[in-house]
Amino acid sequence: MPTVSMTVNGKSVSGEVEARTLLVQFIRENLGLTGTHVGCDTSQCGACVVHVDGKSMKSCSLLAVQADGAEVTTIEGLANGEELHPMQEAFRNNHGLQCGFCTPGMVMSAVDLANNNKNPSEEEIREWLEGNICRCTGYHNIVKSIKEGAANM
Amino acid sequence: MSETGIGASVKRLEDYRFLTGRGTYTDDINQPGQTHAYILRSPHAHATINSIDTSAAAAAPGVVAIFTGADMEVGSLPCGWQIHNKDGSPMAEPGHPPLAQGKVRHVGDQVAVVIAETLAQARSAAELIEVDYSELPAVVDMNKALAGGTLVHDDVADNLCYDWELGDEGEVDKAIAGAHHVTEIDIVNNRLIPNAMEPRAAIGSFDRATGEYTLYTTSQNPHVIRLLMGAFVLQIPEHKLRIVAPDVGGGFGSKIYHYAEEAIVTWAAPKVGRPIKWTADRSESFITDAHGRDHITNVKLALDESGKFLALKVNTKANMGAYLSTFATCVPTYLYATLLAGVYTTPVIYAGVKAIFTNTTPVDAYRGAGRPEASYLIERVVDRAAREMGIPQDEIRRKNFIPRDAFPYQTPVALEYDSGDYEATLNSAMKNADVDGFAARKAASEAKGKLRGLGYSTYVEACGIAPSAVVGSLGARAGLFESANVRVNPTGSVTIFTGSHSHGQGHETTFAQLVSETLGLPLDQVEISHGDTNKVAFGMGTYGSRSLAVGGEAMMKAMNKIIDKSKKIAAHVLEAAEADIEFKDGKFTVAGTDKEMTFGEVALTAYVPHNFPHDTLEPGLEEQAFYDPMNFTYPGGCHIVEVEVDPDTGVVKVDRVTASDDVGRVINPMIVAGQTHGGLAQGIGQALLEGCIYDDNGQLLTGSYMDYTMPRADDLPNFSTSNEVTLCAHNSLGVKGVGETGAIGSPPAVINAIVDALSGLGVTDISMPATPQKVWQAIQGAKAAAE
Ligand code: FES
Ligand code: FES
Questions:
Q1: What is the count of structural domains for chain B?
Q2: Does the record carry Methyltransferase as a key word (chain A) (predicted)?
Q3: Which among B100, B120, B523, B724 would be 20 to 30 A from A71, CA to CA?
Q4: Which pTM value belongs to this model?
Q5: By the 8 A CB rule, do B81 and B476 touch?
């Protein structure tokens, strides 16, 4: 079985995986970081979004071996200790989550948007979220959260 | 108003864990020695199983065990509500085996379970199982099913589960025959797939030392699962069966029911001697989570010359799918026909409902459950009648509203509404939607070559499910009360154990606000515990917007008992008469004196009872209460939707959504708005995007997110939501419920808006989902007809 090594949330990790192991499986099962979720099997829902080398990626659409040597950030690595990241804080402040299942992917995706666009319009946010499905919130408060989070980053 | 009590938009206490990836959903849990289950499912909608050869699979790497229906002869997955036919005979109730017994009846039906060291090994081994099927013709269409021929269950003639009615058909027919005007429509309420974002999962284990089974499962109601699975399917006594529903990623009804996989992993755990984990992938969710809606209805509304409603007649065919899911049978009857008065004074109403088996996934309650189907047909037929008679949409509604001073109001379809003010919500919605500015916006759209329409929906629903005596007399096999346990810890903090279950609703916050308000405690002194049958004494769970109206009331009752007992303790310590003790702002005071004890002091005394008169005062401070509601609660309101249609492409843009809802007293306005948003998105999804489609062979054509259109951020606008308040008259909090209003009120408003936009072309109807293709075809059809 191949061995993969990468940096996850600032720590170097490595593990043996089957060639078919997806990055999301490696994160959830090998590393026990269960904040990254799996909501579909067609790379449509975005529950699994993490950052790979600073860019948001659906970790279900990537093999673990493809992330060999990469710098990965998951939802667990976003806060600064106990202090929430501005995007996390904005989701809390604007009731941008209900059941919380889509939330890690939403937040990681939103951070990537905000990294490149400090002041996204409502339309830009809605368009950006094309790859993230939420069944609970109707998106209204997610859009609000991302606007505030981006401004505060 | 305190910052943490009733009426405050307290930020959610549960959010920290979800935002930092520390939520614990079922699939996040792993147990020592755990194995993985993969379920082999039927690829056919209807077939007999001649043989199953598992020998090659059993020899595959990592395989621990394989079981088929021949191994698992257990009880049937039960149905919780017995409906009676018109003639008084009980409904047909065919068995529902967790693993198929010789026959499969829908694509996805469970055929075998492979348990292996890893999921990948279980999945690979399942491919080696050889099942010899003889395919049978499938029946998918409800009308064809009723014609007999192909039978889903050999012993259910014409695939008819029941033929039920409510109301006096003769009387209604007479009113229709003599009416000035009758509006008639055929309506399809499209089948939906709930799609909570967390797929279902289950982990079964067995402790040989204690004889206790444990099931972790994605459930909205763990005690109900314990009762159904323990008593009916596996015959495990309840004291040896623990069900834990940890964080659950959305339910919308689909996680109420007892599913086969829960029974399979629990049953097999002692056989393999290790924990067994099963998690659905999304494709499995599509074919095995209970679907929603799927009604075909003919409706007739009779009116006098002034536009007053005289009678309503409804005939509905409701799809049950291949088996009866847990609450499937009550949805098109007692959660549907009893709502057909809507917000109007229609004096006579008749509903006939046929429930039908087909070779499709079972259908059950989905957000709103029966009530969206009722409000959709009422509001569509009212809209059409107004157009036919030339009466403005708001006027026809006002003319027929149950007036504010008529409550309590007995409808002709069994329910007694306790409170409401439909004029108030209509007025506020019209104001917030800027109906006055619509003409100018329409002109502006027309100038761009677009069509603009405005659609109304005024609705009522029944929730806070439900008075046990009432539902029991109607065939429910359960009582629908709720329980709460309030444990005051020695240092004065409080743990509440509730039978309600939160899977997005924010109970940990709203319920804590009730405690803060009632006992005068800061929120960080309150813990809300739910979801574990070994912690919570009993519970009926969360569905039908019942958690606050029923679960919250149980909590209030238990807290009042705590206050009563605390007064006894304070009276004893302060050497006063119990009747003289007052409780306010977290302090017990002897009336008219400055002698007082804090809540914390009383708590400590309760657990350090050094000089208690033990014959009259027990140590400890913990109380239990059960609350059974007197009536349903009746949220209602008005939704107004404005759309812009591109006549060249048929694309509908939802431009404005305005909801004014009366959900009774609002505990946390932020959470109430969030619940409304979510419901609106699902309602608009049903109206415009979502639709479950089977082909004639019973193959699901919309079985993934590439084929089933989920509402995405760019399909929806921002929502305008507001609340008008009439208090529920029969619970102490005055609360009604908000979980389903959005999904109930909005679909007809969307369709009415599209019809309004296209009415100039002569279009009178459009079915859900109103996809661009359908809208475009309707436009072309109307144009051709006009030529
Ligand atoms: S799990 Fe759905 S996109 Fe990755
Ligand atoms: S919060 Fe539940 S899916 Fe988004």
A1: 3
A2: no
A3: B120
A4: 0.97
A5: yes
